[in-house]
Design brief:
mainly alpha; 0% strand
């Protein structure tokens, strides 16, 4: 009966300890990753929106307009490569922040509670001897 009572009290104790460890050590990293993810995502959207879109329409233009458009397309192509490189860098950073948040989630919901529960059971076992 005493063992059942101790196990019944172990769950709230583990939850409280887990929350304290999260608040003390992990929460700051989580908030940093979330805010960085939001800013990187916004910058990603801005770069994506600044990319030129090809309108489908047939226009009749003079040869000067054609050459001018061709030069503009070459300039846009060079700018496009720069934008693609920026998008690659941003997507890598976003992936890093997502992985950090996944690790934090696993630590907070699985590893930390199980570890604390195991430590509490060992402590109860030593006290019971």
């Amino acid at each position: 009966m005493l063992l059942a009572l101790l196990l019944n009290l172990a769950v709230p104790v583990v939850a409280t300890l887990s929350n304290q460890v999260f608040e003390g050590f992990i929460k700051e990293k989580q908030q940093t990753s979330i805010s960085a993810l939001e800013s990187e995502s916004e910058e990603f959207r801005q770069i994506e929106q600044s990319l030129p879109s090809k309108e489908s329409g047939v226009e009749e233009r003079s040869w000067r307009e054609e050459i001018s458009a061709l030069i503009g397309e070459v300039r846009d192509s060079l700018n496009f490569r720069t934008k693609i490189q920026q998008l690659k860098v941003k997507s890598e950073r976003i992936a890093e922040h997502i992985i950090a948040l996944i690790v934090i989630f696993v630590l907070q919901t699985i590893v930390l509670p199980l570890t604390l529960f195991w430590l509490l059971l060992r402590l109860i076992g030593r006290i019971g001897r």
